[in-house]
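Sample intake sheet
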Amino acid sequence: MTRSLVLFLVLLSSSTSTAEPAPEAARAAFERFKGLEGKWRGKSTKGWEEESSFRTIAGGSAVLSTSFDAHPNQTMATIFSLDGDRLQLVHYCMAKNAPRLRATRIEDGGRTVHFTFVDGGNLADRNRGHMDRAVYRFGDDGTVTAQWTWYEKGQERWMEEIELSRLSR
């Protein structure tokens, strides 16, 4: 192999690889999700509102988030947990599938968490419509925003951003 080809391959592999967030960052972000325990009101950039709740379950190993009325009279659920040193979520969706996303970037001491699709239940292949990315931002004012994207037939599109305001603990 020529030296330039080897250099090209090294550069290509380093530009396409994604570094895992540090274990301490994943744990800090998970603690932030645990701190959301309680009831919330969500307002979407698309104009709808929802009731949400967060509850720590399973001996503190998971956080269950439910949202009601994002789709009229329907509830969806998202479970956040640590898988070893990795933060992940599974979203039980109205699309009748359950994509699993992993935190691929954690910034600002766990205040901003980027989740990226890994795999999922009821997804024969990646081109079936599913939630593909999520970004959670924890605001200084106690609010939380969640931005979700949808992936289908080889295309990703931004869905909406939901701002959550705490109603009660």
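Comment: Residues 1-17 have pLDDT under 50 and may be disordered. The helical segments are 3-16, 23-34.
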